[in-house]
Each structure stands twice: as structure tokens, then as C-alpha cells.
Write a structure and sequence with these properties.
This protein is an alpha+beta fold. About 40% of the residues lie in helices and about 20% in strands. It has helices spanning about 60-80, 85-105, 130-154, and strands spanning about 1-5, 15, 20-25, 30-35, 55, 105-110, 115-120, 130. It starts with a strand and ends with a helix.
Length: about 150
């Protein structure tokens, strides 16, 4: 089990294993963070303590888009060359690859507030897919926080 997150003090990316209780110290700014080892389920975020979490597939979006764009380009070229069977093979083949990858890739639990990615935890019924209204509320919170930082620095 590990958590990937951004340091709350200096905003540098970090990864920390959470198999046991320990202190984490940011190598960039020396910020300390204490986390408790828990069970295999995750009721709250290990980093910020927020209870609103969502689950998503632990899959790089750029790879999925690359497969889709490649299939579209190849199918367009073969369609233009009057090879319609090849066009359909590329399109259906990419759909099959996408479906197989969806089944093989596990889930990651993400915190709405700090956007920490918790890998290796068991998802429960409380971990629903991303909800746009909750996500927007936390996005607005981050915007207000950044605006306040800008006012205090001026």
C-alpha cells in the first residue's frame, strides 16, 4: 500500500508507503507529516484526513488516448484505401484492447481535497466514482486558497 501526493508545504510530488505507522519528511522543504498504519480499507485520506474519497481506474489516460487516436488514424487511412475490413479490425481491435485493459487494471482511491492517490487499499461501497459536484466544490476551495496566498504575499 502506498500513497502518491503533493507535499502540502512546498507542492513537490512524493510517494510514501503506508504499511506501518511512521513520520514522513519532505526531502525538499523538511515538512513533516505523520500517518497511522491502518487496515486494508480506507475511511479517510491518509494525508489530509478528508472523508470524501472517490475511486477510479489506475490507468494512465495518455495511453488510452494514444490507443484511441492510433486506431482512428489507422482506420481512416485504411478506409481511404478502400480496405474497409482493415478499418473495422482496427476499430474493433482497439475496443477489445480497451475492454481487456479495463478488466485487468485495478482501482486507485483518490482524495477530493488533496488529490492524494491511495494504491493497494480495498475499495468499499463508500468509494463511489468521481462526482462532479463534489469535485467542483473542492476545486473552488483550491482556487480561493490560492487567491488568499496571492493576497498575503503582496
Amino acid at each position: 500500500m502506498k500513497v502518491t501526493f503533493v507535499c502540502p508545504a512546498c507542492e513537490q510530488p512524493a510517494t510514501v508507503p503506508v504499511d506501518h505507522a511512521a513520520d514522513w519528511q519532505c526531502p525538499a522543504c523538511e515538512h513533516r507529516l505523520q500517518h497511522q498504519a491502518g487496515e486494508s480499507t480506507l475511511p479517510i485520506c491518509v494525508i489530509c484526513g478528508n472523508h470524501e474519497l472517490y475511486k477510479k481506474k489506475d490507468f494512465p489516460h495518455w495511453l488510452g488516448m494514444t490507443i484511441l487516436v492510433a486506431a482512428l488514424i489507422l482506420s481512416t487511412l485504411t478506409y481511404y484505401a478502400y480496405e474497409k475490413w482493415w478499418s473495422w479490425m482496427f476499430l474493433i481491435g482497439s475496443a477489445i484492447i480497451d475492454g481487456v485493459m479495463y478488466l485487468l487494471v485495478g482501482d486507485v482511491i483518490v482524495c477530493y481535497r488533496c488529490e492524494a492517490h491511495h494504491r493497494g487499499f480495498t475499495t468499499t461501497a463508500a468509494h463511489e466514482p468521481f462526482e462532479i459536484t463534489i469535485g467542483e466544490r473542492y476545486r473552488q476551495e483550491r482556487i480561493r486558497k490560492d487567491q488568499l496566498k496571492g493576497k498575503t504575499k503582496s
